[in-house]
Amino acid sequence: MxxxxxxxxxIALADEVAGPWKGGAYVDLAVVGxxxxxxxxxxxxxxxxxxxxxxxxxxxxxxxxDGGGIRPEVVASAGSVSVVYSTATALVKRLKAGNGWTELxxxxxxxxxxxxxxxxxxxxxxxxxxxxxGGHHGSTVFVEGKAIYQxxxxxxxxxxxxxxxxxxxxxxxxxxxxxxxxxxxxxxxxPDGAVxxxxxxxxxxxxxxxxxxxxxxxATSATVVVSDGRTGRRIxxxxxxxxxxxxxxLDPKAEMLQPRTLPDASLTTWxxxxxxxxxxxxxxxxxxxxxVASTAGRMEPGDPVxxxxxxxxxxxxxxxxxxxxxxxxxPGL
Length: 333
Description:
single chain; mainly beta; 4-stranded antiparallel sheet; about 0% helix; about 50% strand; globular
């Protein structure tokens, strides 16, 4: 495990996890077996560490921010680690195999950075990268440097991060499309990451984020989870083949923002915001939502990961944090 990550037994259900990202920004995590891989920023420098190894600087000139929509991400599999990050001019994928890194630009020529991005593992090692960028002809959705969707005259929402999921050897990409005042969620699917099919809108009904930036959708193996403000209050919805349902909030007066999930949708997190306070909320399975962290400042969550019998949830406040959640069975089970 990473230096300083081991926690004392018997502590509360939610705790801060210590790690080499202390004092940094925008930490992201991936797990292979019991080994945790982490990337984070120090100003515009991208750093990486795995297991008990020493941190190493991977890149400089890395962009971040936009409400958490622009941030580095990491995926790992046996034998390889892949990181995606945006500079001012390119979306870059770095692959670590052995002791060295290889670099590949994965944004099409002519698009402007910084870029919104998503990354998913490829069977057998490596990663697939999707992104959204702007150019002379509006916004473009692309995968591995190839444009796959541009939409109509209004293009694609440029402030909502896309979500890319690898599931059963195939891929799905979801993002917030733009059509006048509408900001509905669109899904594209691919059997191999190369040929993409427009599967149409996931939501129907004039959805609107209710606020920007960064409130994009999240794809899971059976659902899409997204925050939406079309009722006048931002609520997190779970959408599947049977329709949509609003998830229960901890505070009925709070705005529910920026959902994140485990890939199988077994755990969902989001931010509940009221004036002067933001709270990181966890819903474990069908259980009731519970608060795990709060701040009077910014709160921009990352993707949760499973580490043994725990879930680690990265989030950005004034500095990077990782909150440890010990998964619990619902009452009566």
